[in-house]
Each structure stands twice: as C-alpha cells, then as structure tokens.
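Take a careful look at the protein record below. Let me know whether the structure tokens fit the sequence:
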Amino acid sequence: MALTSTQTSAGFADRFVEARKAFGPLVLGLDPSGDILRAWGLGDDPDGLDRFIDVVVEVAIGAVGVVKLQSAFYERFGWRGIRSLARLAAECRVGQVLVLLDAKRGDVGSTNDAYGEAYLGPAAGIQVDALTVTPYLGFAALRPFFDRAAEHGAGLFVVTRSSNPEGRPLQTARGADGLSVEQKLVSDLALANSRAAPGRLGPFGSVFCANHGPPVDMDLVNMGGLFLCPGVGAQGASAADVAACFASCPDRVLPSASRVLLADGPDPSRLRDALSALGGDLQEALGV
C-alpha cells in the first residue's frame, strides 16, 4: 500500500493527531535487545533481528499509530542491522504507521545537516517521520534539523527531561538568567514553533519523561508542540504519572513503552492484548 497524500504532505504533529484519534496515544517501542531476542527464542544475531521485525510489523500495522525505533539496538549488528532498521521503517510507513527514530543525534551544524539528510525527507537514506535529537552542543546548532524538518513535514523531539537519573544534574542546572536548562529548552522550543507554525501545533517537540513528577514553572501548553514521554512501564512511569505530568496538555503527549510490551512476545495475539491493555489505561488516564 502506498503512502497517502496526508502522510506525505501533512506535518508530523497533524499526522499524530489523526493517528491518536484512530489508535490512541501509545507509542510502541521496538527495541530488540539481546534479552528480548533470546527470550523470544530468535537468537541474538542478525537473523534473529529479521525474524523479530517480521513479527512486530504484523503486530504494529492496524494496532498502533506510532512506533519508536531505538537505533542502537539495530546498529549493534553493523550493516545488516542498519539494513534491517531501514526495512522496518519502510514497512511500517507503507502500513500507515508513523515511524519515530530514537537516535538522539546532535553535533555541530554541518554534521547535523548530514544527519538530517540521512533521516528526514524523501531523499533520506532511511526516511522516518520524526527523529530525536540532543541539544547539549547548543540549541542553535540544531538549526539544520529544524530547517529540514519544517521543509519536509517531519517532527523533531529535543531531549529536555530524560528518564535516567544521571541526566537530572545537567537538566536542572540554572543559568545566569535563573532558568534551568530544561526550562530554557521549553522556552526555546516555544519560540521555534511560533516561528515555524504560527497559530498551529508546531513540528518541534520535547522528549519529556514523567518519572520525575509534574513539571514546575514550565508552560508546556505554550511550548506549542508535542511531548514524547519515554519510560512508561519498565522504567517506572505509570499511566497516572503520565496524566499528572501532562495534565495541562494531555492531547499532546506520546507515551512510549517497549520492554513492558515486548515481554509478551513473540505471540502476536499476546502482544496485541498487551498493547490494548496499556493503551486503554493511558487513554483513560489522559482522557483522550
């Protein structure tokens, strides 16, 4: 099935809104760790990875609106893993599932431009619908990503509040203006979205976990974009935690879970049941 004109022309935020209406907000994380591949009886090798992909594509299409692919779990197999990642992304997109690549790319401007060429737009080597990036070489250095995402209707998610505790000292550190790093990033994203999509939901989102409690002194609504919320399930965040964190904008959050769902594989029916159960809990908690 070919991509629809809506999927190829509408911005990522608009495409997510339509996907959420059809499937709910839950994002299926497809992280084929060695533990998962062995538990599924597939073998922790490139052949096992390909068999994993065969199963999860069957499960994802028609069950979820968005999948999140953590690139490290594919890259560890070298060129064969990259080939498998490309196949998974392409098959999900053909099946009308939005593909969010969790690669956390971020470097100086010229390198970021090359990363953008790799993943965003119809000429990309591995085309995805959205990409995670890291701002810690400077927010302004992300400009090539922003320009390319805006040009091609892709989404970007800037790491703001990560689920790992090691990130908190940096993300809560305060600058000379008195703002914490995470507050400043939300403010910078608000300005970028207001310029890229005035009056609409913008293409630039935030990776913002719910593990650390509701945000204080941050205007999530006026950030003007979406929030990717990792850490649901195995990393400790519950549906109630997600709802509390995003109480001001429950319709803008993409809660992502991987291990807690993949633990029910490789049987497709059990995986779909797990998706349905967690997805229902999140929809009830968020009220969307």
